[in-house]
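My current task is to audit a protein record that another person submitted. What it holds is a sequence and that sequence's fold in token form. Thanks in advance; the entry in question is below.
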Amino acid sequence: MTTSGIGVIGKGINISGKNAKPGNMVLINGTIGDHGIAVMSARNDFKLTSNIKSDCAPLNELTSKIISTCGGINVLRDPTRGGVATTLNEIAAASNVGIIIEERLIPLKKEVKAACELLGFDPLYVANEGKLLAIAPGSFSNKVLSAMKNDRHGKEASVIGMVVKSPKGVWLKTNNGALRPLIMLEGEQLPRIC
């Protein structure tokens, strides 16, 4: 393994979207939606009072830390197009499982939340550039979280949910305890930005 370019994922390591299993935990390395809202704001010259910045970042060192700390990682994915919800739907479908994420656990900057509310976007479908989703066995999740938090691109990492046998698909456990389905994004919430 190397952290200086190609070759971060060593031989014999399988991080396919087909590897999510019930009992696995879902983690993300930081706040969501920053990139999509920053790009949309710049493109459309929105006069947002806050300074929302893209989360663009190289993730090779973070990925290497996660894999070297926890060889048992099952899935790694970047939630770029279609955001977190669409990426998790792709994983759930490939693995034939359900994924429940908790609204209260999802890291989201208040400025991005406010912009999404103003523009009518769900931040779970907004593009990210410097983020990765990791799915790991529950017994390894604390190690993965620690590895993320010990990297400059993972300081705001969080466990956001769990893989389940059923219900299939992706679900958001809302702050009031209800389960809301998160379907695959059809079309594009934002025009192609990258």
